């Protein structure tokens, strides 16, 4: 029965996604599967088994698409842009932490909760820290972090659609051939390497190992062989459906845990964050040669997987956007998280002395 329900959900997601694609909706395969999941849970059954590995498979495929864009030339461009990457990431984190003050006042939560709920792009680390801090509201931190991901998926594509891109690949020569045209047995080493790197990232508790593993595996392949490829669009469509079901299930579960104050507070905080990102991208564009949309998607808060799906659909510079978000992940994990942890520990010690 579990398999029958899962197959029914997949068929429903495919049908709705195909329909949205046919009428020209933005991100049809992602939104279609999210809508299908909501409708399935609401009107058919909320008891269905969606294996975790299926959602991870979608993330894994997205990681391959990201990695395929990291060619030697793209890496050199990224290194030349490193200071822009650093300052944009720093500005977004400062903006997020500043908005935590507004969030704290609106929800009447503790400073610990507001701080952990506001750090962008580090869901697992913030949840671990919320578990360890008795003053943090674990539920509110979880819902706020997850709702930001959903809101970014919904709002960012529509905002980005108002700003036109130059034709994809303009001035960059011939596009890379698709995987099915150039596949050879030696390319299986990429998959093996991706699994090894995923295991290492999981072992050291690094975020999104199912995404970073294939990214770095394909990156190493590109540097060592120089044989570039891109994924067939069909692979990305399947990945979006699997990923969309996963997000849709999370969104549906969140709806039953929210109250009016939470909804208003999270909407205000996340909308201000997105508008602030728009402002930062607009100002920063005056000092660089990057297109506005590339800067906006590079700076936008949210998970790298969701934003890369948006970038693929919009014809954006995936290598640039990925490099900004990967740098932000490392920056948050290696610098911001330890600082937040130290600050919360300092507050606990102060309370103990008092």
UniProtKB/TrEMBL annotation:
The keyword Transmembrane applies. The keyword Transmembrane helix applies. GO terms for cellular component: membrane. Pfam families: AbrB. GO terms for biological process: regulation of gene expression. The chain crosses the membrane at residues 53-70, 82-103, 148-165, 185-201, 208-229, 263-287, 294-312, 324-344. It comes from the Bacteria. Keywords: Membrane, Transmembrane, Transmembrane helix. InterPro entries: AbrB_dup, AbrB_fam. This is Membrane protein AbrB duplication. It comes from Lacicoccus alkaliphilus DSM 16010.
């Amino acid at each position: 029965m579990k398999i029958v329900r899962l197959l029914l959900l997949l068929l429903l997601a495919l049908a709705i996604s195909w329909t949205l694609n046919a009428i020209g909706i933005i991100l049809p395969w992602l939104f279609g599967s999210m809508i299908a999941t909501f409708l399935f849970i609401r009107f058919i059954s909320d008891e269905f088994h969606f294996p975790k590995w299926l959602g991870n498979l979608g993330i894994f495929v997205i990681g391959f698409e990201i990695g395929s864009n990291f060619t030697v030339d793209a890496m050199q461009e990224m290194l030349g842009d490193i200071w822009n990457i650093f300052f944009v990431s720093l500005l977004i984190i400062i903006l997020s932490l500043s908005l935590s003050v507004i969030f704290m006042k609106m929800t009447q939560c503790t400073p610990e909760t507001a701080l952990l709920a506001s750090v962008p792009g580090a869901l697992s680390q913030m949840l671990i820290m919320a578990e360890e801090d008795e003053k943090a509201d674990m539920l509110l931190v979880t819902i706020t972090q997850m709702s930001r991901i959903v809101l970014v998926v919904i709002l960012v594509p529509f905002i980005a659609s108002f700003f036109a891109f130059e034709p994809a690949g303009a001035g960059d020569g011939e596009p890379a051939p698709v995987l099915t045209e150039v596949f050879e047995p030696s390319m299986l080493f990429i998959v093996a390497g991706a699994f090894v790197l995923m295991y290492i990232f999981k072992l050291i508790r690094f975020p999104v190992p199912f995404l970073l593993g294939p990214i770095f595996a394909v990156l190493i392949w590109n540097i060592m062989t120089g044989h570039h490829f891109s994924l067939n669009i069909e692979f990305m469509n399947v990945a979006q459906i699997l990923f969309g079901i996963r997000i849709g299930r999370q969104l549906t579960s969140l709806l039953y845990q929210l109250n009016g104050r939470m909804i208003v507070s999270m909407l205000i905080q996340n909308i201000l964050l997105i508008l602030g990102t728009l402002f930062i991208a607009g100002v920063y564009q005056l000092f660089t040669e990057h297109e506005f949309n590339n800067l906006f998607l590079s700076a936008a808060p949210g998970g790298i997987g969701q934003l890369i799906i948006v970038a693929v659909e919009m014809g954006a510079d995936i290598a640039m956007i990925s490099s900004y978000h990967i740098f932000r992940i490392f920056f948050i994990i290696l610098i911001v998280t330890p600082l937040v942890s130290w600050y919360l520990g300092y507050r606990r010690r102060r309370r103990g002395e008092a």
